[in-house]
Amino acid sequence: MKTIFIPAKINSELNEKRIEALKLPKNIAIAYSIQYKDIAERVKKILSKKHKITETVQVLGCSKLKFPKETEAILLITSGQFHAVSLAFESKLPIYILESNELRKISEEEIYSFEKKKRASYMKFLNSQKVGILVSTKPGQEKLKRALNLKNELKNKKSYLFISNEIDTRQFENFNMDAWINTACPRLDFEGFVFNARDLKGLEG
Prior knowledge:
The chain is an alpha/beta fold. The protein is 27% helix and 23% strand.
């Protein structure tokens, strides 16, 4: 059976004057989720008149983006906060969300709340006896080797591998684990009770 992929697009009218009037730093990067690609290209064309666009990049749920050093802020064209807060935390740059011609900046309070959740899940891991290690079989997310290495490193804890294509956090309550370590999509840490394996060394200091 042949699989056909049909790209999803968001139809939205851009108010060019309002876009031109946006108060943004001089050097900005533009990031967008896939359904907003066409809108992102149009916004880039408008903003390029007064701003230097350092990067235009699609943001994926599982990607960790890097931006040129001269980037002063990131304009994210998407909906919701799923990407925005994580992007602000990882990049340490101001994040502005553009949705329906309205601009909003991710606040320090939102970033602090996210960081607080990450540290809480890390402390839960440190105090845990039984740890569930999440592994996805999806291409690009599959990190079985990393999970096996991590299992061997956790000598003072009982650890168990949970391997699945789709990771449904609603099912966690069916397993008697003290903590969950994620080797799959890093955006699972947005849930607040899952800690990313790649962050283990980063928060020990």
